[in-house]
Amino acid sequence: MSKNTQILEDLAYLELVGMTLDQLRSLHHWAGRPGSEERVTFKSGHDYFDLGHEMGANNSLFADRLHFVAEAHKRNLEALVGMAERAFPGSGTEPT
């Protein structure tokens, strides 16, 4: 999978699971710079990377950060589901 495709998938996933714009912006190489509030959004990321722009060093680092967060979130969610299943095992009865 190309890095552009991966960042598009990670942006979609993280937006879906509730990552805030502040969290997204904190991972971007423009973090804290004036204008980042208007320029760094989920939509701007989708629009930019959907065009297939070449992945420079800064964008590559942003993509790596997003991928790390998305993968960690997925792993932690799976772990939490497993913990819930063990903590509250089914009784084998049908729900009413």
Descriptive notes:
The chain contains five helices and no strands. The protein is mostly helical and 96 residues long.
SSE blueprint:
Blueprint: H1 3-16, H2 21-27, H3 36-39, H4 42-50, H5 57-87
Write a concise keyword list for the protein shown above.
mainly alpha, 96 residues
> Which structural category do the helix and sheet elements fall into?
mainly alpha
Tally of individual helices = 5
Task: Based on Cα principal axes, name the global outline.
Answer: elongated
Alpha-carbon distance between the two ends: 45 Å
Helix content: 55-70%
Q: What is the radius of gyration computed over CA atoms, rounded to a whole number of angstroms?
A: 18 Å
- Uncertain runs with pLDDT below 50, 5 residues or more? none
Strand element count: 0
Order of helices and strands: HHHHH
Mean pLDDT: 90
Short description:
The chain has 96 residues and is an all-alpha fold. It is 68% helix and 0% strand. The chain has helices at residues 3-16, 21-27, 36-39, 42-50, 57-87.
